[in-house]
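Human: My hope is that you can spare some time for a protein that puzzles me. I am handing you a single protein, as its sequence and its fold in token form. Could you go through the record with me and say what the backbone is doing? Take your time, and here it is.
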Amino acid sequence: MSEIKALVFDVFGTVVDWRTSLIDNFTAWGKAKGIKGDWTALVDGWRAAYMPSMDEVRKQPERGFVILDDLQRQSIEPLTAKLGITGLTPADFDYLTRGWHSLNPWPDSVGGLTRLKTKFIISPLSNGNVALLTNMAKHAGLPWDLVLSAEIFRHYKPDPEAYLGAAKILGLTPQQVMMVAAHNNDLAAAQALGLKTAFVPRITEYGPFQNRDFKAEGNWDFVVKDFNDLADKLGC
């Protein structure tokens, strides 16, 4: 493992608790605005639209790359209509979309990342766009060395261009980069391209709807309890 120079991280679910953060945010916001709605159903439905919206970008390359903020904004209006949440203005939809910019970290994230940063380059490698990831880092205190995003590579994970692009932009070989994620499919895509891998379980990411990623399902280089455990194993 001495060849590893950089750690790149999945963010939604691995570094930040998107579900609890959004539900708490929207519940308080709705109460203050006098807007009633099933905010838990909204958040879960919105997340369910995440992968399909990115798949549409892949299927229609002629339309060009569309950043995640724009995909999320496109998804939210029909979803609120379906759930009977009415009376929202364009500014309200913009507020909800920007909720993804202010997600809270898991308890071990900031401390663990700070330790890992002492020995390695650390960066997100996320489908979130650059502004989203930058604002989230400011909100959550995430100590990234830089921000790597699908927006930079014009490809969403698990497209190879994202993983290989991260190594290239860092001036490293894939074998010198380790992908850290709570999602086995993310790690499988990275491993197939030569990246090292570390699995960290986040078994409450989807709340009661969690149905996968309870444990490591591949031959990953590291399987750890949390970021501090990873820092221990990497000598940080």
User: Anything to note?
Assistant: The first strand starts at residue 6 and ends at 9.
